[in-house]
Amino acid sequence: MTGNTQALLDETKELLVNTYATQPIVLERGEGCYVYDVEGRKYLDFAAGIAVASLGHAAPVMLKALQEQASQLMVAPPSFVTKAKVDCARLLVDNSCFDQIFFTNSGTEAIEACIKTVRKWAYDNKSKKCSDIISFRKSFHGRSYGAGSLTEKRHSQPYFAPYVPGVHFAEFNDLESVRKLITPNVCAIFIEPVQG
How far apart are the C-alpha atoms of 52 and 142, rounded to whole Å? Predict the structure, then answer.
């Protein structure tokens, strides 16, 4: 490890909140499914930005699309319509089982929207008391308050309590453990199809 790598690792400990265990390398760039550190070493990228960069790094078609869009408009909030947004929504609706699309900035924001959606649906269609959610042990849904409440880490992180109430944990791949938790007050079951 060169002095540059160690200096950057040390500076990271000083300046950044330690939300993950820091790896002993400093990434510099990516190409396809590989990443390279500042020492020039090549790694197969199994993390893919915690699954948000599953299309790889620096793909020419993605770079072209990003450059074209950046030269026109950097951001358009949900209250503004863009042709690109409508085209993307149409592509998704036409190729899925869904009638409408909700664009978000992250997976955790999608989970928050799902929590609100299922609880509102249950409130309107089942009962005002129907707000319980079943999640699974060893799952991860995000770092926000609601998503964190669906994550079993809540049991090892009591300092963030109180968590969203009414969340119960089943064993992954154990249908009987799910059945035991189902009551008239359950409005949703959150499943992470592949646990990370």
Answer: 12
Nearest alpha carbon to residue 134 among 56, 196, 187: 187
Digit-coded pLDDT (tens) for 24-40: 999 999 999 999 999 99
Its CATH architecture, for the domain 3-69, is: Alpha-Beta Complex (3.90)
Residues 6+ apart with CB under 8 A from 33: 44, 45, 56, 57
Residue count of the chain: 196
Q: Under a CB-based contact definition with an 8 Å cutoff, are residues 172 and 137 in contact?
A: yes
pTM of the entire predicted model: 0.78
Q: Where in the chain is the domain with CATH 3.90.1150.10?
A: 3-69
Contact 117, 102 (CB under 8 A): no
Is the Cβ–Cβ distance between 35 and 43 less than 8 Å? yes
Cα dihedral 57/63/69/70 (nearest 10): 80
Characterize 129-140 residue by residue with b for buried, 16 or more Cβ atoms within 10 angstroms of its Cβ, and e for exposed: ebbbbbbbeebb
Retrieve residue 181's tokens.
């938790």
